[in-house]
Amino acid sequence: MEKTLVQNIGLLCTPLGSSVHAGEMQGQMEKIPQACVLMEDGIITYAGSQADFPMEKAQGAQVIDAKGSLVTPGLIDAHTHLVFGGWRQHEIPLKLAGAGYLDILRMGGGILSTVRHTREASEEELLERSEGFLNEMLSMGVTSCEIKSGYGLDLENELKQLRVIKKLQETHPMDIDATFLGAHAVPEEYKEDPDGYVDLLVDKILPAVAEEKLARCCDVFCETGAFDVPQSRKVLMAGKTLGLVPRIHADEIDAIGGAQLSAEVGALSAEHLIASNEEGMQAMAKGGVIADLLPATSFYLDKTFAPARRMVELGIPVVIASDFNPGSCPSLNLPFAMNLGLLRYKLKPEEVLCAVTLNAACSVGMGDKVGTVEAGKQGDLVIWDAPDLDMILYRFGSNLCRTVIKKGRVAHEKG
Question: Phi and psi of 63, rounded to 5°?
Answer without folding.
Answer: -105, 125
